[in-house]
Amino acid sequence: MSRYPSVACVLVAALALLAPHGELSAQPVTTDTLTVSLPEALSMSVGAHPELAARSWDPVAARGDLRQASVFAFNPELRLESRSPSDGLGERYEAELGLEIEIAGQRGLRTRAAQEGLMSADSRFRDVGRLVLADVARSYHRLVAAEQRVALLTAIESTNERLAAAVRTQLAEGEVSVLEANLVAVEAARARARAIQERSLRTTAVLELARMLGVDAERELRTVGPGPASDGDGAPASLGDALRRARGNRPDVRAREREVERARQEERLARRERLPNLRLAALATREDPLLDPRFGVAFGLELPMFNRSQGLTQRRIAEVSTARAELDATETTVRLEVEDAHRRYETANREVELLERELLGPSRENQRLLDIAYREGKIDLASLLLVRNQLLDAELAYWDAWERRERALTDLRSATGAILDGVTFTPGMDR
Question: Model's pTM, two decimal places?
């Protein structure tokens, strides 16, 4: 009996560290590490995401349009004409204070169109927020899966180092063959290569999420790992339920509806522009310095003989049709997005359940049985290495499927608008 631990004991001790589908132990947390949960990441992104900050000024601009639309279109006009400047301005003159007044309700139509524009801008801003939150959630889950894969491969690397040391000793003592020793060396190299790749992917995921959250790139960013909230919470009970949620929650649909109504108001306004405005003026005239000035009132109407806003009306009619077509297209897109996300979520969820039930459990059970067989001399080291590869592949396949499920669930919550629940967006944000 060798004084060094057997190959089987080394494998069993290492594989016992690997949970079949739970959270793996990760790298030690340093003092400069920021650990965030998914709700915290979503909350941070609302105030830090650069695209959301840029688009937050759209409702502010639309509110300015509403304010401008509600004022009177024309300012008073003062005209003063001196009949004999050499005698002084007050000797002979004619003064007129006039104002052009819209009498066909144009101001009210402009105000209503601007109100619809403001509601549309608010909805578009929320839709940008919807897309941003979905991007953050996808990046968060990508980082969670990367952390789990790195932790798994780090444990395998540590196992390989101990295993290689034990095999070298056993090779020197004649307990294992050169072929078996080479198999261990090859598997160790493969594990190191996979670990290098996964660490690079984790670094990319960290940088991407840090950019979205406004976290300094020099600071280590970590997740709390997969939690109970990741296992399907928030998924609609059926496709019909998902479609109903989308029709009531999607801000891009609300924005298109407001654009249709705004175009209708502007079409009505264009038709009213054909009607003449009333011009009302107060007059003061003094023809002789010996006489008192005379006062009067002047009325005027613009005669729409040449310019009757024909082209503008035609354009507004076309804009109404365009807005309606865009609304129909958006509704169709929303329906397709919901159906696709729901299908992908159902498929990925079944895959995860299958891996948990029929792959991870049997793989670990095989490890236990084969270890007994190895200690009894019924199988060789190559069989144990095969079992370890099966368990590793099963774990990596599980986290790939888990990430696909979480991505599909995020896409589904984004498609239905449920991802916006409880989130408040503030117009006019500065980063």
Answer: 0.81
Asked whether 119 and 154 are in contact (CB, 8 A), the reply is no
pLDDT tens, 25-44? 445 545 578 999 999 999 99
> At CB < 8 A and 24+ separation, what contacts does 362-366 make?
363/20, 363/387, 363/390, 363/391, 363/394, 364/15, 364/20, 364/391, 366/390
Residue 260 belongs to what H/E stretch? helix 251-272
If one counts every other C-beta atom within 10 angstroms of the C-beta of residue 311, the result is 10
The first and second tokens of residue 400, run together, are 């790939």
- Distance (Å, rounded) from C-alpha 410 to C-alpha 413? 5
- Mean pLDDT is highest, among 44-48, 99-103, 109-113, 226-230, for 109-113
Q: Are 74 and 100 in contact (CB under 8 A)?
A: yes
Residue by residue, DSSP assigns 336-394 as: HHHHHHHHHHHHHHHHHHHIIIIIIHHHHHHHHHHHHHHHTTSS-HHHHHHHHHHHHHH
- Residue 398: CB atoms within 10 A of its CB come to 23
Q: For residue 195, how far is the Cα from the chain centroid? A: 30
Neighbours of 237 (CB within 10 A): 7
| 37 DSSP 8-state letter | -
